[in-house]
Amino acid sequence: MEQLATMLSGILSHHRTLRIAFGAFCMLAATALHALDVEIKGNLSDDLVAAVEGGSLLVEVSQAELPPETSEILSAAQADYRRVLAILYDNGYFGPEISIRLDRTEANDIAPVSPPSSVSRAIITVKKGKQFTFGAANIEPVQRKTVLPEAFRSNEVAKISAAQAATRAVIEGWRDAGFAKAQVRDQTITARHGRGKLDVNIAVSPGPKLRFGNLTVDGDSAVRTERILEIAGLPVGQQYSPDEVEDATTRLRRTGSFRAVALLEGDVAPDGETLPFEARVVDNKPRRFGFGGEYATIEGLTLSGFWLHRNLFGGAERLRFEGEIGGIGGEAGGISGDTGGMDYLARLRFDRPATFNQDTNFYSLAEIEREDEPNFFSRQVSAEVGIERFATDERTYRFGLGFRRAITEDALGSTGYTIFLLPSGLTFDYRNSELDARRGYYADATLTPFYAISGTDSGLLSEVDLRGYHTFGKARPTTVALRMQLGSLAGPSLENAPADFLFYSGGGGTVRGHDYQSLGVQVGPDEDDIIGGRSFLGLSAEVRMRTAGSLGFVAFADAGYIGSEAFPDGAGEWHSGAGLGARYATPIGPIRFDVAVPTSGDTDGENFYLYFGIGHAF
Questions:
Q1: What is the largest CA-CA distance in the chain?
Q2: pLDDT score at 28
Q3: Distance of alpha carbon 72 from alpha carbon 78, whole angstroms
Q4: Are 483 and 466 in contact (CB under 8 A)?
Q5: How far apart are CA 69 and CA 87, in angstroms?
Q6: Which helix or strand (DSSP H or E) is residue 251 part of?
Q7: pLDDT for the residue 297
């Protein structure tokens, strides 16, 4: 082949097009010559063949994009003896014979320092022998609340993983009951080849029942030691629990002040009853900034940024300043345009962790906002203080006390109002990922009773956001994502309600395929004389299909309802939109590109809308 290639290369040296074609041919020929074919032989079930293929390094290197070197093939083959043996052991085969031949030579007979010049074929032959079942399957003592896996029982297939799972369950059971130093004291595993039985006897030593001892801090941290101990909240003197250790670690990480956190068990104290701990922390950089953007053909460009200090006073306090400018380049029309004019937001927020107890944070914030929307204009200043309670990693509750002063203008005229607010809410976040959720659910609900000082009536503002995710398929997983949004304003009449408390539908956050905030309540003879409604219902569905690489595709449909009544009763108006999109996965979340068209409601002659951003629509 090489001589033929040399001869043809000389003949074709003056023909550029033919040289290119011949070069491609030679590359394909070389790849074909050096490709590795791996075959698995033996009387194996489909599941066992799949397990061997999944654990074999030979199979892995044969599927690489570039042809493997012979030294790589030999190294993989010699490692596969142990890997295949472990797979067989885990499936109950304890007397197997394994042969791995590279072009008819047993891999173990080849010296690593002198690998063959080429290898084109590898054959893994397995004689699995008799499948063993458990004879004796004993582990003791077992804490009374521990449930052993059903696979670790007499006459079940003798899988080593079943014995390992049983051991873990027993150790964890004792640790959950306060026996922090529980460990395996002795184990005997006997294979009775004649009867095909594997006897497993494991003895566990629970050790003493312990209480939490003192927590010390190791590391030169800018956060004061007393604050680290306060935030961790390790319950010194109480019975040991691994969950408490994990919770303390989570509290320290949640502050954002630390890049790494570890709580390490010490040796049992001389009293034989307490277990001291050591916290090892590595500080994060104290300051951070970031920015983001989103673009839609109608709403225009939105730019946002923030600056953050993670340890303001040495107690892991956070100070965050953020700003946002929206409506850049939005289309003209309405009061200030189809999307209004430029919107501005400036917010300053202070957070102090572990203020009243280890799971309750204090916050205060001040905010100045200007909203120049299609159907209303608002300038407002507000301030708020409150607490945020972390019940678990997934459940958060909040309660605050606030003040707001605003001047608004809409189709009903200009007005100003002053109110006190009592915002409260909860967030349940059981998604597997915040940036690219594939399973789980998310729920956020906010109830804001407000007391009117002037310009409006007292009432209750309610907002709910529910999202669910389910993924099926493995090779090219597809995720179905559903969302429901609900809004209600009870108390003030439509004419006397704060204009920026009313609801609209349309645009990237509600119904794609329609003008931004295009659906409201008409209050005059002109169709452009609309204000927001006192009730809102939004429904969205997406089907997210992923390819083998970073690219994904989305089909979606949105619908929105606005009513003048306080709670949706069907008397209002609906509109809807649908479209297709693409997603490109990045470390900071998927880059989103959506194309949407209206499917019902007033379309204003628009044919389609484009949306760009980082992260999914929901």
A1: 96
A2: 38
A3: 10
A4: yes
A5: 26
A6: helix 242-254
A7: 65
598 near 576, Cβ under 8 Å? yes
Instruction: Extract the tokens encoding 346.
Output: 């400036």
Closest CA to 118 of 68, 62, 56, 65: 68
Cα 443 to its chain centre, rounded Å, is 15
Cβ pair 58, 124 in contact under 8 A: yes
- Which stretches of the chain drop beneath a pLDDT of 70? 1-34, 296-299, 330-340, 603-606
Query: First and final CA of the chain: distance in angstroms?
Result: 58
The dihedral built from the CA positions of residue 567, 570, 576 and 582, taken in this order, carries a sign that is positive
Please answer whether residues 372 and 343 qualify as being in contact, where contact means their C-beta atoms are separated by less than 8 angstroms.
yes
Two tokens, residue 347: 């917010």
The closest of 301, 303, 345, 344 to 321, measured between CA atoms, is: 345
- Tell me the residue type at 617: A
104, burial (CB in 10 Å: exposed 0-12, middle 13-18, buried 19+) = exposed
Phi, psi angle pair for 47, to nearest 5°: -65, -40
Euclidean distance between CA atoms 145 and 331, whole angstroms: 65
Question: b/e per residue, 554-582, with b = 16+ CB within 10 A?
Answer: bebbbbbbbbbbbebeeebbbbbbbbebe
pLDDT in tens, 24-76: 334 334 444 457 899 999 989 999 999 999 999 999 998 887 888 899 999 99
Q: What is the DSSP letter of 268?
A: P
Task: Tell which residue, 435, 335, 423, 437, has the closest CA to residue 387.
Answer: 423
Count of all residues that appear for the chain in the document: 618
Burial 79-88 (b: 16+ CB within 10 A, else e): ebeeebeebb
Beta-bridge partner residues of 280: 218, 262
Name the pairing type of β-strands 530-531 and 413-421: unpaired
Are 286 and 603 within 8 A, CB to CB? no
At residue 207, φ and ψ (nearest 5 deg) are 75, -175
pLDDT at 75: 93
Return d(Cα 196, Cα 202) in angstroms, integer.
20
408 neighbors 416 (Cβ within 8 angstroms):
yes
C-beta separation of 121 from 37 below 8 A: yes
Record the tokens describing residue 127, joined without a space: 């004689």
pLDDT tens digits, 85-103: 999 999 999 989 999 999 9
SS (H, E, C) 42-88: CCCCHHHHHHHHHHCHHHHHHCCCCCCCHHHHHHHHHHHHHHHHHHH
* Structure-token match 């083959």, residue found: 77
- Alpha helices in 122-264, H assignment, sequence order: 160-176, 225-232, 242-254
- Residue 260: name the closest of 279, 277, 245, 282 by CA: 282
Helix (H) or strand (E) holding 188: strand 183-192
- Estimate to the nearest angstrom the gap between the alpha carbon of 91 and the chain centroid: 33
pTM over 0.85: no
According to DSSP, the β-strands at 197-205 and 133-140 are parallel
Q: How far is CA 153 from the centre of its chain?
A: 37
Q: From 367, 370, 366, 355, select the one nearest 325 (Cα to Cα).
A: 370
- Euclidean distance between CA atoms 70 and 90, whole angstroms: 30
